[in-house]
Amino acid sequence: TVSVTDVNEAPVIESGKTGTVAENAAKSTVVYSAVASDVDAGDGITFSLDGADKDLVSIDPSSGEVTLDSSANYEIKDSYSFDVIATDMDGLTDTQPVTVSVSDVNEAPTISTGASGSVDENAAKSTVVYSAVASDVDAGDGITFSVGGEDSSLVSIDPSSGEVTLDSSAN
Q1: How far apart are CA 14 and CA 156, in angstroms?
Q2: pLDDT digits 0-9 by tens, 116-134
Q3: By the 8 A CB rule, do 111 and 132 touch?
Q4: What is the dihedral of CA 12, 15, 21, 27, to 10 degrees?
Q5: Helices (H) and strands (E) in the chain — how many of each?
Q6: Measuring CA to CA, which residue among 31, 38, 34 is closest to residue 12?
Q7: Residue 145 carries which DSSP code?
Q8: 142 pLDDT exceeds 90?
Q9: Bridge-partner residues for 166, per DSSP?
Q10: Chain centroid to CA 104: how far?
Q11: Greatest CA separation found in the chain?
C-alpha cells in the first residue's frame, strides 16, 4: 500500500501583468484586479503589494482590487509599477509584477491673468486694454486667444499674444 500525503501548494496569480487608467481618474479608481487560485481546498488567499510604486496604490486584501491613492496625472507619472502578492493560509506566495499605464488626456489651458482691464477715457483706437496670459500643462499644445461676450464687438484680440485692443476710441 502506498499512501499519498497531501502537500500544500502555493496560490497562482491568474490575472495579467498590465492595466490602464486615464489621466485625472479619481482617487480610489480601480486600476487592476488581481485574480488568484489555490488547488488546496479551503485555502483562503490574501492579496498585498510590494515594489516601486506600492505606496501610490492600495489593494483590497480580499478582492484583489488595486486602487489609486491619488488622482492619476500623466505629466507627473505616466505609469505605476508594483508587485501583487497572493498569500495562502500557510504563508505560501505567488508574485506578479504589474505595470499600469496612464493614458494622457488633453487638459484645457488656464488663463492666469485677472478678469478685468481698464482704459482711460478717449484712449485711442488700438490701445491695449488687457493682456491675457495662459498656460497649458500638455507639452506641445499651442494656445490661441479669442474674445466673446456682450462687448466683444468693441475690442479685438491678437490670437497669438493675447493682447486686447480697442476697435474705436474709448468714450
Answers
A1: 62
A2: 888 888 999 989 999 999 9
A3: yes
A4: -40
A5: 0, 14
A6: 38
A7: -
A8: no
A9: 155
A10: 8
A11: 112
